[in-house]
């Protein structure tokens, strides 16, 4: 197999050293296995059959993958051989068969070997996100071969750029670089990715702030114009104060800006403030408000300034730390420090002041804690210490031992709080007379008494009179004293827990404590819980004592009955054996029938037992377990005789067939009539009984109605009409329930007072109002005060009265719900409703009003909300030129709802753009792609360029039309146009101000041609001849063409017009310099012509040299000083 020539290697199967070619397959395989090769054998010497031999070809491509180019077509389609070749050299894929390039499994294996393999994949596979991601994980550059659709996929791109931000820079499409959401997600991964965002995004304040919320250093890649904006930089400081690293020097040197910056973060002083600012009292005080340690940055002159230090100490007492030694000895300054913080005074005030008796007396009036830091002589001063204690008793802690032992001083402190004894010496706490007075003032004073006094009966009893809890401080001997403990528990039952174990077993003591709270049994001796006599007394005081009773006592029949007499719930603690005991449960039910709840199920099912229970107390019939007894007539009748309410428990069938039972209940109370079954409702005797209860005359009926208004419905037939017409009776009934109006006569339905009483409860009471009231304006407006829905019952005349409806709408705009259809279509009335609430447009825009041009435009004026009102216009109005244009004047978003036909009409859209350039966003795509249409739109407003396509933004004429109006139009120019020198020159001629506004990323820093403080650096303009001029001066103008000079000189009139006296502004200075240089060059040219004409060419430099210098010296020293002030 003779050598297969490639540009890299020629494989020869020449025998090593012998010079003889391999003539057989075996020899070829042997040499391939050793891979000792030489160069120089012709390909024609190898048999052609070897090119189709898989074994030979596989051996060859293992040594050089590009040798695949000489294999047969069949082997170029062999996946294993091609993958062997790719493993050696990925470029071998260009010789593989096209079918393999479309095989996903093959390409996946190839990509695993080398990511470059993806470059040979078919278009379909390049659109496979998984396969592409496999390649990208090996090397981000693989993204180059991804399909356009994948590159537009936000999720895919976010995954692809995880490893390297340069993938965004090199391969992300423009639409993603304009996508705020995408850029925000990318910045989370790589900060540098923000530099790839479009200029528009990097100039957007809101978006840059959002990015900075994730990574504050993103400001490094924000547009330079933003960094020159003081307001933006101050807002950016919310994220991190270090953003000022990116602020221009003229901003850092601005006092007002630094003051605002310091208000946001005092650390600005340490890095950015000049000496002058650190010597500025106002700036430093703002810093001190945030952190007193900011004074480390203050100039020495400030720390020696009494007025400044005093102001600083007023803000923060610790400012005294940074004051000069003289000021630390200043009484006024030190006093202000004391007011703020005693520690600041103690640590930083001079010792001389701390030893001044008169000064310290005044200090104590302000802050008693300063006594801790006073000189020892001052702590012995009675006047100082007394003044301190008058402020707070805790000052006794810092007094000298001699004063702490002074009874008068201690008494003064104790008047505020007994805990002052904590700081008193033993000579005070061991004084019997003193401590006896102390415990009279506070029981807890016993806590600090000496051991001898804690064992003194008189002292302890005096403390116990104040509070029984003082027993906790008594000696162990007194805690065993029965009389002492008894006195303690009389004051507080909880004192029992402090008594000795022996006293806690005393019945009298424990019962005395129980009289206040049964829970003290928790602290009683356990042996008492087995004592029948004690527990019986305890249960009489509270049945809850059963909780502590022994199990043997809980089984005691008599003991448990005694507990049940206190409360039937005592059975909660009864054992199961008692709950099964028939005799015990009967005795318990005799005491309280509710004990039936605790009986076992077997007893509740025992009919004899249950009948006996009901005999004891008929109320037991209400218990669910007595349900079978309710069918027993005799039992129910006897029960009803005791209480008519038992009729509620009787089954309906029993009541229907037993008249006597019902009659017995009605005899007791007429309200039982409500429980009478329907078949007995008309029983003469029952009805007569009820009527007798209600009364036989209107006066008696009124008294009955005062108890229950329903009684009037049971009045005698002869009184029925009189009752219904009686105003007093009906007024009383309606006050109880407005439904009583149903029973009133027609004459009373006209009574305003009665109707208003019903209205107070429910507006539906107007249902019963007479037609006269429903047609009364005053009455209906008064009714609406209770509920505007009352208008539902107004007469049709009122609902059709526009004046009345206007008054009604003043109370609630929804009153129009009940207006007549004619009024709902009344333009003026609906607009009146909209003035009260804009929601009226949603509710009342009828078809007639939607077709009313005047109404729709007026609604547009009132609803200043993104053209929302135009949504309700009819289709005819939405397609009407004049109407839509008038709506656009109110809000350009009215086009959201305009007809599609208008949006495709060229003439209409031109008119719309005249009113508002944003209207262009709604123009049809074919219109926006029309050059003449876009040119006309831009002539009306340069901002129409925002909707221009990329091709249109590269159109010089189109962009220049916008630049004539405002230089910001260049923001929309394509990058290619911005780099076009000829175009930029034309732009400058159209709008000169862009010259000093345009900047590029590549611009370095430069020094403007005027004197500035400390030679601070600022950004240079983007034009190459600007940069050259800044470093080389007038020499640079020599090679510049005359047209460039002419353009720059054209700035003269503009500059003087806008800033006639602003000579300190560097950009204007620079323009004036250019202008002056150009004028100088013109003068020189004229002089040369004049001298040439006169034959005096040799005197060029001598005669005019001084003039040149004078002309060139355009910037004076005084102007530099102005700049410093600026």
Write the layout of secondary structure elements.
Elements lengths: L24 H10 L19 H10 L9 H4 L2 H10 L9 H4 L2 H10 L9 H4 L2 H10 L9 H5 L1 H7 L5 H6 L2 H4 L2 H10 L9 H4 L2 H10 L9 H4 L2 H7 L12 H4 L2 H10 L3 H5 L2 H4 L2 H10 L9 H4 L2 H10 L9 H4 L2 H10 L1 H7 L2 H4 L2 H10 L9 H4 L2 H10 L9 H4 L2 H8 L11 H4 L2 H10 L9 H4 L2 H10 L9 H4 L2 H10 L15 H8 L17 H10 L9 H4 L2 H10 L9 H5 L1 H10 L9 H4 L2 H10 L16 H10 L9 H6 L1 H10 L15 H11 L3 H10 L9 H9 L1 H10 L15 H10 L9 H4 L2 H8 L11 H4 L2 H10 L9 H4 L2 H10 L3 H5 L2 H4 L2 H10 L12 H4 L2 H10 L9 H4 L2 H10 L9 H4 L2 H10 L9 H4 L2 H10 L9 H4 L2 H10 L14 E2 L11 E2 L4 H9 L9 H8 L1 H8 L7 H29 ...
Antiparallel strand pairs: 1-2
Helix pairs in contact: 1-2, 2-4, 4-6, 6-8, 13-15, 19-22, 22-24, 24-26, 26-27, 26-29, 29-31, 35-37, 37-39, 39-40, 41-43, 43-45, 45-47, 48-50, 50-51, 52-54, 54-55, 59-61, 61-64, 64-66, 66-68, 68-70, 70-72, 72-74, 76-78, 78-79
Query: What share of the residues does DSSP label as strand, in percent?
Result: under 5%
Strand order of the largest sheet: 1-2
Number of distinct beta strands: 2
Give Rg in angstroms: 53 Å
Structural class: mainly alpha
Name the overall outline: extended
Helix fraction by DSSP (H/I, runs of at least 4):
40-55%
Brief overview:
The protein is mostly helical and 1126 residues long. The chain has 80 helices and 2 strands.
Folded structure, characterized:
With 1126 residues, the protein is mainly alpha-helical. Helix content is 54%, strand content 0%. The protein has 80 helices and two strands. The radius of gyration is 53 Å and the shape is extended. The relative contact order is 0.02.
């Amino acid at each position: 197999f003779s050598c297969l020539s490639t540009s890299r290697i020629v494989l020869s199967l020449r025998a090593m050293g012998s010079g003889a070619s391999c003539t057989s397959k075996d020899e070829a395989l042997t040499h391939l296995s050793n891979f000792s090769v030489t160069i120089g054998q012709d390909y024609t010497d190898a048999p052609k059959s070897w090119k189709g031999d898989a074994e030979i070809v596989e051996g060859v491509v293992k040594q050089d993958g590009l040798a695949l180019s000489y294999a047969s077509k069949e082997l170029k389609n062999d996946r294993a051989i091609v993958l062997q070749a790719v493993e050696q050299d990925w470029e071998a894929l260009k010789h593989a068969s096209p079918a393999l390039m479309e095989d996903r499994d093959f390409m996946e294996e190839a990509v695993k070997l080398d990511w470059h393999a993806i470059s040979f994949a078919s278009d379909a596979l390049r659109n496979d996100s998984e396969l592409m991601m496999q390649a990208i994980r090996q090397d981000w550059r693989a993204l180059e071969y991804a399909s356009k659709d994948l590159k537009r996929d936000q999720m895919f791109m976010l995954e692809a750029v995880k490893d390297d931000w340069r993938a965004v820079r090199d391969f992300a499409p423009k639409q993603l670089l304009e996508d705020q959401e995408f850029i925000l997600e990318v910045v989370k991964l790589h900060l540098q990715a923000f530099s790839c965002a479009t200029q528009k995004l990097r100039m957007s304040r809101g978006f840059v702030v959002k990015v900075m919320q994730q990574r504050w250093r993103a400001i490094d890649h924000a547009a330079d114009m933003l960094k020159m904006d003081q307001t933006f930089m101050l807002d950016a400081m919310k994220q991190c104060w270090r953003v000022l690293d990116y602020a221009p020097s003229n901003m850092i040197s601005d006092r007002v800006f630094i003051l605002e910056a310091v208000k946001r973060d005092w650390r600005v002083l340490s890095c950015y403030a000049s000496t002058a600012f650190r010597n500025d009292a106002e700036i430093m005080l703002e810093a001190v408000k945030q952190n007193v340690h900011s004074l480390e940055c203050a100039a020495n002159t400030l720390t020696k300034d009494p007025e400044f230090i005093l102001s600083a100490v007023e803000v923060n007492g610790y400012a005294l730390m940074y004051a000069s030694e003289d000021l630390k000895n200043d009484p006024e300054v030190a006093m202000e420090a004391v007011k703020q913080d005693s520690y600041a005074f103690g640590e930083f005030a001079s010792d001389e002041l701390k030893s001044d008796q008169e000064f310290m007396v005044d200090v104590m009036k302000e802050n008693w804690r300063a006594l801790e830091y006073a000189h020892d002589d001052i702590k012995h001063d009675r006047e100082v210490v007394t003044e301190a204690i008058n402020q707070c008793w805790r000052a006794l802690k810092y007094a000298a031992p001699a004063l702490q032992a002074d009874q008068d001083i201690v008494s003064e402190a104790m008047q505020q709080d007994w805990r002052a004894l904590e700081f008193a010496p033993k000579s005070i706490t061991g004084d019997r007379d003193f401590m006896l007075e102390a415990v009279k003032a506070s029981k807890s004073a016993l806590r600090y008494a000496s051991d001898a006094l804690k064992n003194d009966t008189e002292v302890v009893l005096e403390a116990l009179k104040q509070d029984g809890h003082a027993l906790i401080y008594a000696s162990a001997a007194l805690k065993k004293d029965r009389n002492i403990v008894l006195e303690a528990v009389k004051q507080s039952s909880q004192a029992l827990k402090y008594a000795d174990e022996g006293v806690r077993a005393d019945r009298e003591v424990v019962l005395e404590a129980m009289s206040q709270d049964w829970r003290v049994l928790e602290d009683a001796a356990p042996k008492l819980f087995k004592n029948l006599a004690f527990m019986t007394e305890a249960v009489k005081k509270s049945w809850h004592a059963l909780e502590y009773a022994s199990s043997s006592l809980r089984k005691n029949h008599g003991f448990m009955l005694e507990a049940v007499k206190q409360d039937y719930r005592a059975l909660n603690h009864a054992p199961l054996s008692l709950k099964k005991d028939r005799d015990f449960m009967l005795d318990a039910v005799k005491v309280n029938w509710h004990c039936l709840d605790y009986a076992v199920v077997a007893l509740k099912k025992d009919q004899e037992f249950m009948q006996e229970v009901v005999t004891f107390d008929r109320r037991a019939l209400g218990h669910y377990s007595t349900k079978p007894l309710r069918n027993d007539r005799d039992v129910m009748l006897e029960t009803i005789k005791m209480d008519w309410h038992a009729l509620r428990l009787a089954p309906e069938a029993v009541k229907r067939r037993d008249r006597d039972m019902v009659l017995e209940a009605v005899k007791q109370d007429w309200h039982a009539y409500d429980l009478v079954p329907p078949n007995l409702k008309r029983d003469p005797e029952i009805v007569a009984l009820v009527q007798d209860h209600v009364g036989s005359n209107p006066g008696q009926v009124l008294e009955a109605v005062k108890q229950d208004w329903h009684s009037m419905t049971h009045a005698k037939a002869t009184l029925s009409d009189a009752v219904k017409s009686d105003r007093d009776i009906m007024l009383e009934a309606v006050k109880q329930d407005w439904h009583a109006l149903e029973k009133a006569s027609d004459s009373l339905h006209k009574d305003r007072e009665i109707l208003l009483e019903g209205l107070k409860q429910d507006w539906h009471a107007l249902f019963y109002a007479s037609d006269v009231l429903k047609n009364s304006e005053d009455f209906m407006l008064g009714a609406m005060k209770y509920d505007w829905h009352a208008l539902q019952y107004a007469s049709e005349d009122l609902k059709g009265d526009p004046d009345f409806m206007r008054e009604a709408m003043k109370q609630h705009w929804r009153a129009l719900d009940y207006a007549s259809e004619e009024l709902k279509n009344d333009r003026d009335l609906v607009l009146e409703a909209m003035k009260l609430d804009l929601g009226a447009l949603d509710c009342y825009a009828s078809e007639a009003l939607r077709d009313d041009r005047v109404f729709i435009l007026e609604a547009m004026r009132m609803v200043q909300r993104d053209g929302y009102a135009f949504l309700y216009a009819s289709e005819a109005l939405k397609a009407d030129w004049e109407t839509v244009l008038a709506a656009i004047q109110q809000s350009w978003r009215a086009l959201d709802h305009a007809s599609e036909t208008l949006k495709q009409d060229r003439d209409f859209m031109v008119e719309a753009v005249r009113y508002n350039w944003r209207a262009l966003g709604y123009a049809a795509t074919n219109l926006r792609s029309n050059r003449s249409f876009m040119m006309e739109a831009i002539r009306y407003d340069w901002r129409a360029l925002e909707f221009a396509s990329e091709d249109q933004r590269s159109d010089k004429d189109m962009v220049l039309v916008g630049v004539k109006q405002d230089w910001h139009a260049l923001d929309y120019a394509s990058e290619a146009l911005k780099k076009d020198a000829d175009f930029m020159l034309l732009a400058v001629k159209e709008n000169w101000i862009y010259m000093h506004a345009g900047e590029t990323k590549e611009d370095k820093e430069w020094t403007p041609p005027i004197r500035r403080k400390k030679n601070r650096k600022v950004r240079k303009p983007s034009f190459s001849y600007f940069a050259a001029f800044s470093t080389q001066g007038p020499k640079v103008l020599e090679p510049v063409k005359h047209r460039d000079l002419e353009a720059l000189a054209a700035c003269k009139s503009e500059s003087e017009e806008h800033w006639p006296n602003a000579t300190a502004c560097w950009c204007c200075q620079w323009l004036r310099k250019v202008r002056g240089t150009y004028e100088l060059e013109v003068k020189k040219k004229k002089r040369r012509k004049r001298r040439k004409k006169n034959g005096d060419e040799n005197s060029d430099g001598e005669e005019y040299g001084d003039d040149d210098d004078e002309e060139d010296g355009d910037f004076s020293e005084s102007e530099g000083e102005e700049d410093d002030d600026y």
